[in-house]
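From the methods appendix. Each design record in this collection lists the tokenized structure first, followed by the designed amino acid sequence. Records were kept in a plain field format so they could be parsed without special tools. The example shown here is representative of the layout used throughout.

RECORD:
FOLD TOKENS (134 positions):
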């Protein structure tokens, strides 16, 4: 007949629980690290966007200005272009060209409306002007 000591059984159980807990935490940490490593670009983009989306203005393919879209204020840029001076408005997270811009006859760039999301753009073909949210 086998005689077990109750105190040693409790110690073995306690050690096994501790090992299980440590193993579970280590596995969880490794899994979380792998997920974050795979999503590092998304994480970096999210942190960067806390200050607003990045914008870029090019004329004839050359970058002439860039910065962050203001989320809580309104700013206006006056930019010399081949047909005059372009007025670009950045207003609480959106960018647009007002209709009173007299830099092109058809005003298509003004009629494009506001851009607010990454990948959107406003283009003025006569002036070779492109405003993009990156």
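DESIGN:
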């Amino acid at each position: 007949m086998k005689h077990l000591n109750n105190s040693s059984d409790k110690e073995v159980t306690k050690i096994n629980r501790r090992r299980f807990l440590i193993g579970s935490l280590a596995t969880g940490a490794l899994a979380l690290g792998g997920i974050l490593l795979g999503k590092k670009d998304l994480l970096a983009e999210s942190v960067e966007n806390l200050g607003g989306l990045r914008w870029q203005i090019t004329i004839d393919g050359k970058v002439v200005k860039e910065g962050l879209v203001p989320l809580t204020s309104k700013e206006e840029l006056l930019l010399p272009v081949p047909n005059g001076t372009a007025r670009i408005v950045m207003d609480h997270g959106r960018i647009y060209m007002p209709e009173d811009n007299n830099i092109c006859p058809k005003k298509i760039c003004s009629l494009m409306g506001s851009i607010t999301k990454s990948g959107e753009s406003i283009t003025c073909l006569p002036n070779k002007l492109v405003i993009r949210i990156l």
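APPENDIX NOTE: The chain has a mean pLDDT of 85.
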